[in-house]
């Protein structure tokens, strides 16, 4: 398809003269007309940027439908009643209406669970896999990085419901395969990393990330077994035995308040509290005030019904100097001590905690998607159940098993722009570039050439501006990240094709009759 350039097409001589590597990416988006920020954290999408969003939506739709998902469109507003039932109403990142009973849904676990509860009539309707693509809102206190962390963002969120854990994990793996399909189509290297479930909850999750030095996340990869995990889920052991003298301790409780958890670790390392969940699954990591925690265990009489678990980091030995135990009257038979447990933040060069053999490599990364297996975290409090035939013909009521799956469309575009740029501009993957090719000419195109170009069936813009030289037109096309520039000059019917894609640079003269075949071959690579 041939079309004209956007009406507002940047001719900013100042920005075109710069080394794009030295210009913050979020500034390039606005100066080149991809987006506009009416206020920090908010986004207006301009035609080039919105073209990219639509192409990315098409890719995601195709792979989600291929995974058996059905598209829905949920209300942006959500009831406080539901969020209170799941214990998430106090989240300080929710935009709450003045009525105190409604919020803008930053994510839709509560609403989709209530919807399924109201609609499902039989277990025979399972499995269910619903998805939507729409704007979400989060009261981000420090919006930054343009598209990477704002108050408004575009997201694909999906939710699955199954009869049991086995079926739910099959659905989870089906969606994971669909995600691989999406990211492979974008042709930008990515990693899938084991991750903590965080506030969303559940027992299993994976982050999908692009490696980049400016990323806010940290990812570790084992050189031997290939295990990939984020900082909160990486277990590590020292290369050589440590002679750790000084020891620090942090106190936690279990969620029922009946067990005191004492985490001992080297004073020169950082405790990674999420690693404690491997040993104490019901640990309460939100309550971190040591004085208040210890007060709960200060009464000798109530301590008769309480327990103590001491967890020793693997870098500690009997020669380490431990702080005094703060509760002297505890019956020693109520104390359990776990030793050689890695509970501090891993460092590059340490030994992988999974295979206990390979060395860990560390990289910064940008998270762009997340998948969760939730179990019945939401279906239990919201009573989303079905009647299932049991043994001897007796039916039983069962909570549905759930998963949720997010892809940040605006984050993907923001991250790829950060990663795929050089001194001349962006290098978008052809699959989501604002348009696939710029046809650059100093005059009108002949009818024969128009027919040839249209027969190629790709998204093209024609730059025939009379007062702008060919060189500047090429420079602008490169700055915008357009993968292919087709230059119709005075050597016609020989045409110069300038390819500038992800990992590929090529300039070639081709005849008009070869143009379609050559461009089609190149597009498969970029």
Automatic annotation (TrEMBL):
Record bears the keyword Phosphoprotein: no
Keywords noted in UniProt: Aminoacyl-tRNA synthetase, ATP-binding, Ligase, Nucleotide-binding, Protein biosynthesis
Keyword Protein biosynthesis: yes
InterPro entries: aa-tRNA-synt_IIb (IPR002314), aa-tRNA-synth_II (IPR006195), aa-tRNA-synth_II/BPL/LPL (IPR045864), Anticodon-bd (IPR004154), Anticodon-bd_dom_sf (IPR036621), Pro-tRNA-ligase_IIa (IPR002316), Pro-tRNA_synthetase (IPR050062)
Catalytic activity, as annotated: tRNA(Pro) + L-proline + ATP = L-prolyl-tRNA(Pro) + AMP + diphosphate
A Pfam family of this chain: HGTP_anticodon
GO molecular function, one term: ATP binding
Gene Ontology cellular component terms for the protein in this record: mitochondrion
Enzyme class of the recorded protein, top EC level: ligase
Domain Aminoacyl-transfer RNA synthetases class-II family profile per the UniProt entry, residue ranges: 49-416
Source species, domain of life: Eukaryota
GO biological process: prolyl-tRNA aminoacylation
EC number(s) on file: 6.1.1.15
PANTHER family linked to this entry: MITOCHONDRIAL RIBOSOME PROTEIN L39/PROLYL-TRNA LIGASE FAMILY MEMBER, PROLINE--TRNA LIGASE
Family, similarity comment: Belongs to the class-II aminoacyl-tRNA synthetase family.
Name of this protein: proline--tRNA ligase
